[in-house]
């Protein structure tokens, strides 16, 4: 796939002064991407503190040519910190984010701990960036699948008002953290070598399989991931009417989540109009040349796949077509790198937005 044009500025904005930054969960899958983004975007850093569990304390991580020690996350970790990025699980966010805020830091949290807290803005900058300005110390990054879904759907909602979505997700192994990715890679090797693959971090063997379970089950038979997609969508869109019915599935893909959606709007939405809207939506790349279209006489077959989208900051959208089961309805396929736009990039974007608006 050719490199897509992007409207994302390559460098972070400059604020009043460089910032003292802490990354809690620096050794994790999301933490690694966060550090890469802070470096590549020349984020205005006065200092950088790397925090993880006691297991990692004493190790170092390389950043801008320097070995930085990893320290154990404690209540005392945030003295003098301006911004603390949390990517170390909900329990740690609940335990340590209040201490960070009490130390004067703004917390940008990647976990689900605070997302539905009415006092905590749940922010996708391209969709509801202004909500960030009302924060009281903690801002939450939405669930990664919710972000991929909404990046494709929110621009259409603004035009035709979404009332219902039925979705299936195709979620990458790394969405369950570094240990799940390593386990999936070990399963691939085991299968290739004729050994029996083992599953511990993932609920089942993923190689040669798909697993219709992401996160834990709830009493009604849904998983938590499926419920997040429904509830978080309403909070981000600021619309209590929208309902999302989702089946979330882990697939044997290392990185980038895909979502297939059937969308029902208050006003009809044609594929042609949806293409026009999405072609100019910030942070979205439209890749929708179906089989019948051709480039240089050859079938184009342009649609996004996880492999194309891995490492990209934007969410890619394609396979737009009318829903044959519902008048005025639309079918859509969205793919995004869940470690980037679904987590680390969305978090850095929130900090950049606060810098731009003079709040950091
Ligand atoms: N993976 C994704 O695609 C994704 C997307 C969106 C949101 N998230 C969320 O982001 C967070 C991190 O996910 P991840 O995928 O990066 O997980 P991960 O690869 O498993 O990394 C977890 C990080 O948390 C640290 N940690 C674990 N226990 C700790 C403790 N007791 N005290 C301090 N630090 C501790 C780990 O440090 P050690 O190395 O020392 O154990 C590591 O740095 C989770 O809340 C997850 O739900 C993940």
Could you describe the 3D structure shown?
It is a single chain. Helix content is 29%, strand content 24%. It is an alpha/beta fold. The chain folds into two domains: 19-142 and 342-356, Rossmann fold, CATH 3.40.50.720; 146-338, Dihydrodipicolinate Reductase, domain 2 (2-Layer Sandwich), CATH 3.30.360.10. Strands 3-4-2-1-5-6-7 form a seven-stranded mixed beta sheet, with helices on both faces. The two termini are 38 Å apart. The mean pLDDT is 96.
State the end-to-end CA separation: 38 Å
Q: Could you state the CATH homologous superfamily of the largest domain?
A: Dihydrodipicolinate Reductase, domain 2
Uncertain regions spanning at least 5 consecutive residues: none
- Element order: H for helix, E for strand: EHEEEEHEHEHEHHEEHEEEHEEH
Helical/strand content category: alpha/beta
Task: Determine and state the CATH class of the largest domain.
Answer: Alpha Beta
Strand content: 15-25%
Residues in helix, %: 25-40%
SSE diagram, text form:
Elements: E1 19-24, H1 29-40, E2 45-52, E3 60-63, E4 66-72, E5 83-86, H2 90-102, E6 106-109, H3 125-128, E7 138-140, H4 144-160, E8 162-171, H5 178-192, H6 224-237, E9 243-250, E10 257-265, H7 271-279, E11 284-286, E12 294-295, E13 298-299, H8 306-309, E14 315-322, E15 330-336, H9 340-356
Parallel strand pairs: 1-2, 1-5, 2-4, 5-6, 6-7, 8-9, 11-14
Antiparallel strand pairs: 3-4, 8-10, 10-15, 12-13, 14-15
Helix pairs in contact: 1-9, 4-6
